[in-house]
Specification:
263 residues; alpha/beta; 5-stranded mixed beta sheet; 11 strands
Length: 263
């Protein structure tokens, strides 16, 4: 965030695992996978990993974490894709039978870029399955609903039953998706993807450094989304907001999950 230091910090790459009462398991993004390491082995793609050094221990791989929960890849009903940046979709190829839920516009945005321009915008098209379009349930085709979030009045009924609303959070990419739902403990959850990188930044209303604008599709739209999220956070303290790369939030959620598990 602006005003921060130049020293490196740890960014987790979080994935959401959701169990729907009738559809079964859903994922929000897939995070990293060994496919990312392979895709960034050669030049120029290796520059991606050099600029954002990545560590993926075997026990952190998504398939391993699902296996520990006795969940097989073909048990994942759908993967909700916030956006197609490599650190959010590197595991898509590990789910060959799973439907994808995302935006048609986001896929088209990536497809129109050449190899170098895609890399400069944090896309690695090699990570996207060849049959992506055939397996995509486009958000643009879903019914709209009011997600009940201050400042965000239009959501998309992803599952057809009103239980999960996709919310457009543009700027980081042209059609970035957040996800709003209520969990079994009654907590209202808003997964933010990369619309905000750190909750501390929202609380202090400090946008990312200007160099980050090089990655964004529309920096002005990102700033507008960011300030709307900051307003929402200030006015709705009961809402649990989870950015995909916030270490503080991850630590809080880990401890909260342990408390729920022992309740």
């Amino acid at each position: 965030m602006r005003g921060g230091t130049w020293k490196g910090i740890e960014f987790p790459a979080l994935v959401g695992l959701i169990r729907h009462p009738t559809l079964g398991f859903l994922l929000y993004d897939t995070g990293y996978s060994p496919h990312f390491m392979e895709a960034t082995r050669g030049f120029p793609e290796c520059l991606y990993r050099m600029l954002t050094p990545t560590r993926l221990d075997p026990e952190e791989e998504l398939l391993r974490q699902l296996e520990e929960r006795r969940i097989a890849p073909d048990q994942i009903h759908a993967i909700i894709i916030s956006h197609l940046h490599a650190d959010h979709v590197a595991g898509l190829r590990d789910f060959p039978k799973t439907r994808f839920i995302g935006t048609r516009a986001g896929y088209q945005e990536m497809r129109k870029l050449g190899r170098l321009r895609a890399l400069a915008k944090a896309y690695l098209p090699a990570l996207v399955p060849a049959d992506f379009e055939q397996r995509l349930d486009a958000v643009e085709d879903a019914a709209t609903l009011d997600p009940g979030l201050l400042g965000f009045r239009i959501g998309y009924d992803l599952l057809g039953d009103g239980s999960a609303a996709a919310v457009l959070l543009p700027g980081h990419t042209g059609s970035h998706l957040g996800l709003h739902f209520t969990d079994t403990a009654g907590r209202r959850i808003f997964l933010l993807g990369d619309a905000c990188w750190q909750m501390e930044a929202l609380e202090k209303r400090r946008l990312p450094s200007r160099i980050a604008n090089l990655l964004f599709t529309d920096p002005a739209a990102y700033a507008a989304t960011f300030h709307k999220l900051a307003d929402l956070h200030a006015q709705d303290p009961g809402l649990v907001m989870i950015p995909s790369h916030c270490s503080r939030t991850w630590e809080e959620q880990k401890h909260g999950t342990k408390r729920l598990a022992h309740a």
